[in-house]
Design a protein that fits this description.
The protein has 145 residues and is mainly α. The chain has 6 helices and no strands.
Length: 145
């Protein structure tokens, strides 16, 4: 059993069930992830270290360490901008579905269902493509595995 302390999303005055009820949802999942658990979950989803190991050869052949360092800094800044905007939406609409649930809530009612469906498929396709790319780059000729 983990001894890590779960972080609160809202103040003690705000009940999370009330926020979800206002959005039209009923709380069904237990919210007990701590910081370490969330970091572990994020790394297991993104598999960043294995993906990075598979594409290092491209950076080395394209320009070496300067290109690799500066592109890593630039990509990190852009990724953080996306992460901060998604965190802001997540704090306003704390639903388990993520992007497709946010689209359903934020899109105009006439197109919300269709856009939510397309967003869900983009999420699934992106996750599958990320895994396939990760496995593909690890088996390219000239790439150490």
């Amino acid at each position: 059993m983990s001894t890590e302390r779960a972080t609160k999303v809202f103040d003690d005055e705000v009940r999370e069930d009330a926020v979800l009820e206002k959005l039209g949802y009923q709380q069904e999942l237990k919210r007990s992830f701590g910081l370490l658990g969330m970091i572990g979950f994020a790394f297991s989803i993104v598999t960043s270290w294995t993906a990075l190991g598979g594409v290092l050869i491209v950076g080395v052949e394209s320009g070496g360490p300067p290109v690799m360092i500066w592109s890593w800094i630039g990509i990190s800044i852009v990724t953080l901008a996306v992460a901060y905007s998604m965190a802001e939406i997540c704090s306003a609409y704390p639903v388990a579905g993520g992007q497709y649930s946010w689209v359903a809530v934020l899109a105009p009612p006439s197109v919300a269902r269709g856009l939510s469906y397309v967003t869900g498929w983009f999420m699934l396709t992106g996750t599958l493509a990320m895994g396939a790319t990760n496995n593909f780059t690890r088996r390219l000729p000239g790439v150490d595995s």
